[in-house]
Amino acid sequence: MCKNPFEERFLVIAEKPSVAMTIASVLGCKRKRDGYLESPDGAVSWCFGHLAEYAMPEAYDENYRKWSLENLPIIPDQWKLIVQSDKAKQFKVLCNLLNNRMGAGSDSGYSSAPFDYVVNACDAGREGELIFNRVYELSGSMLPVKRLWISSMEDDAIMEGFMNLKDAAEYRNLSDASVCRAQADWLVGINASRAFSTVYDCRLSVGRVQTPTLAMLVERGNQIDNFEKEQYFITHLLVDSMGETIDAVSEHFTDREEANRLAGICNGRAATVPSIERRTKTVRPPKLYDLTTLQRDANRLFGLTAGTTLRCAQALYESKLITYPRTDSRYLTDDMGQTATDVLKACFQTFPFLSQAEAASTPAETSASVIPSVQGADSPNIGRLLDSRKVSDHHAIIPTVMIEKTDLSTLDKDQKKILTLIASRLVCATGQNHVYETVKATLLCCGYPFAAMGRIVKEEGWKAVETAMLTQCRAFSDEGKEEKESASSGQDLSTLYQGAQFPSANTKVTEHWTQPLNQYTEDTLLHAMEKAGASDMEADVERKGLGTPATRAGIIDKLVSSKYVSRN
Description:
By secondary structure, the protein is α+β, with helices and mostly antiparallel strands. It folds into three domains: 10-178, Rossmann fold (3-Layer(aba) Sandwich), CATH 3.40.50; 231-284 and 435-513, Topoisomerase I, domain 3 (Distorted Sandwich), CATH 2.70.20.10; 291-432, Topoisomerase I, domain 4 (Orthogonal Bundle), CATH 1.10.290. It has helices at 17-27, 88-98, 126-139, 155-163, 172-200, 210-225, 256-266, 291-302, 306-318, 337-350, 352-360, 364-375, 413-429, 462-476, 522-531, 552-561, and strands spanning 10-14, 31-33, 36-39, 42-46, 52-54, 81-83, 117-121, 145-147, 166-167, 231-241, 244-253, 271-283, 434-445, 448-459, 501-502, 506-513. The protein has a seven-stranded mixed beta sheet. A four-stranded antiparallel beta sheet has the order 14-13-12-15, with no helix packed on it. Strand 7 (117-121), helix 3 and strand 8 form a beta-alpha-beta unit. Helix 11 (352-360) packs antiparallel against helix 14 (462-476). It is flat and about 100 Å long.
């Protein structure tokens, strides 16, 4: 526990009880009260998420109870906030605290000393601003407001945040943005839902983000329904190269007879390799996770919904095991080099398979020098993670050093998977390049060309860590998805060379059908939401897509709960 470093008496309001308990422990507020904790230095209380919300239309005019086109559009002159009935008790506690009403409310044991200021310790983001400001506005408090802005729930990070509190006015633009978002959602949701429900004589839910998202799903469904499959055929030329069967293919034929004719001409005839093209390609390590890319990978690899991933990440954050998850940044700030190095070491200690995979990913002749540098403070690979210019409100998601001091067996299987993903991504991001060679060979038989494609891995690099991570995560349970065949796989064409000759080739014909686009998964839908509108905007225009990393999971869940879409 750290002692309070401030001379003035503070009131801290967190977004939820669990966060408040952690902050209270750091600030030494141990005495439990009804709805808050206190010490002689101050008090820590909490909201339960959004305590207040905009009133429904009938609160402005009783005539609005009836849904009719004549009443539209409904645009309040003065916006009214109401407290949610199931959270009224905690709101009353906060009002008493914010107005220094000692002895008021359900607990008569308030300290006699008034508070000098209040700290907004709700989540450091747009919604955290809205949650606090609504309570503050409704309470009528005149206390000066300071802002706690942190990206980790570790004790040291919390205390550092309190030592560097900001004036709330510095976040005015973010606060205004939160109000604009909330009012836009209300205006579109209320007016559009009533309009469409009235026209179609049934209750319909229309939303600023959910409806465009639904439109993308409907459009994809229509594309699939209207897709007309086309049949085609391929003639294969099969040759034996030093015990390896090489499969070369012809162009596509729409007529089976044409494919059969080519097979008949070439079957049993000699083939040569007039040309072969080899290209070395490099795949750089991936960037760190933001929330959307974490949700996409968790869905693609393990079948977890975006909502499940967000809940797991939030729980890990509140347990001090990862940094703030609701971020759209994939870099760390320039001053976090040592932090990243310390966390890397913690990852290697906590997840032994990561250090083993890292060693296996490095060429034998250089492993002795590379592995220490990856785990040491002088690692040149740490630098690629750092770029303050590309960090918005919060840096990318990484583990904290607390993973080394925590019994991870207490986590549920999904939380383990998410934590393992995040730790593995940090190791991957600082790892070596994945290097492979593509091989494209042309085989000629009776004057007809056939193409053989292959890929040979030269250096596994960071992909060795990814493979080890998948194996580890599947060990947590028998559930989840098998990752599709790696892009590094393919037939081995290492024995082929230009001028090679084969005395006798076999042939076969295979039948194929063109395939429609796949239905969206949550992985691909999240990507589509993130990139929505990109084709309609200039390249240099900043675009955020549909929703935010923090809200996209809720939008998908709402579409499912409204029975507009279903998960298969």
